[in-house]
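Hey, quick one: can you model this chain's 3D structure?
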Amino acid sequence: MPFEDKLEQLEHFCLDLRETLEDRLLLVLADLEKQVPDLLQKFQRESADGAERAEKLKELEVRVEMFCRRMSTQEERLQSCAERAEKSVALPQLRSLCREELQKKLTEEDLLGTTALVRKQQDSLNEATRRCSFNCRGSWIGCTWPDFGRRF
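Sure thing. Here's the predicted structure for all 152 residues.
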């Protein structure tokens, strides 16, 4: 009968083990059942928050897309300005061009010849004034010459 005793011991051990497992499982299941409503509420809140965040994300995507379009437009304008600046005349070239144009105008107007002529005429007038003043010293002393604004 040792076999029957051993079998009985084994059955008893299995029953104890079963009770222990059931007790532990029942405790865990009871805890899980208590957590289910809280977890369900939390899931619903997170789901609603997720929907709101998805909407905000879409709005943000639209804003980013609009910003990218504006940036693209600004880049195109900047590129256009850069191209125009590259095509424009550089400052030294502009100075050289202005000097050439001024020289052409001065040559056309013969400014140097006109200046020399005016100086000759001024010298002649000064000489005539000096002679007249010298010749008419007695009668014109203290008079003002109307053309030149001098007092003799």
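One thing worth noting: The chain has a mean pLDDT of 82.
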